[in-house]
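### Sample
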Amino acid sequence: MAFRLCSLSRRFAAHAQQVLRKEAGFEFRASCIAITAGISAGWWMQQAARAEGIWTPHLGEEAKLLNLQREMALRDRHDKQFVWQTCSGQGKIEDCRIYHCKREEVDREVSLDAPEMVEGKTRICAVMRVGDELNGHPGLLHGGFTAAVLDDFTGLATWQLGKRRHSEALPPTWVGGKAMEKQAQALDKDAAIFTAHMDLSYRRPLKAKSEYLVEVCVDRVERQKKVFLNAAIYDKDSHACVKAKVLYIVKKK
């Protein structure tokens, strides 16, 4: 009996040691995973901050990130909005951050001395990351997609309808404390806008799986019926890959 008890004790002790080694190994692996995840998260945060820093010269120090509530604005549609639904998602527009920026001087070809013509007041920029499902030539974004992006962003700068924030007295086109051109110029709140003319200049191919900056600036507003805008898409080397001059018509309903 004593021999059997000793044998059982030895087997129990050996089993206990195996369990402890397994638990110790599990804890060690869990610690390694946690450390690796922390390092990875920190690395991605550094990359994001570094990427944002690349665009600082374009955005300017006064740039304010906008909360446009796109999902809320589109959720009641029975169809799909082309840029923000059809062209968004993994492999398409994977991320897009839009900023209200300080407007700078505009190099224009016409004088503002013309009757009923006023200086524009709005400038927005967007940092946009795209995948490889929006291509024309292999590895290069389709020109029709870039045209649609510029069309959508020029419309955004002209006529963004935002959610009321903080109080009902706040103008509905103010988003994140910033007004788009419609509110800034006190244009007809019940009117609609339509693209009348878009002149595009494709200067460099845009590679897929890359990040770009989209810039839109309202040049001038004429007789509260025509809104003229300049737009461009820049790569990380500050090359203007696509430039556009756009005219929107303000049409009363």
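Strands lie at 64-65, 93-100, 117-119, 123-130, 174-175, 178-179, 192-202, 210-222, 226-234, 240-251. This sample (Thioesterase domain-containing protein) is used throughout the tutorial notebook.
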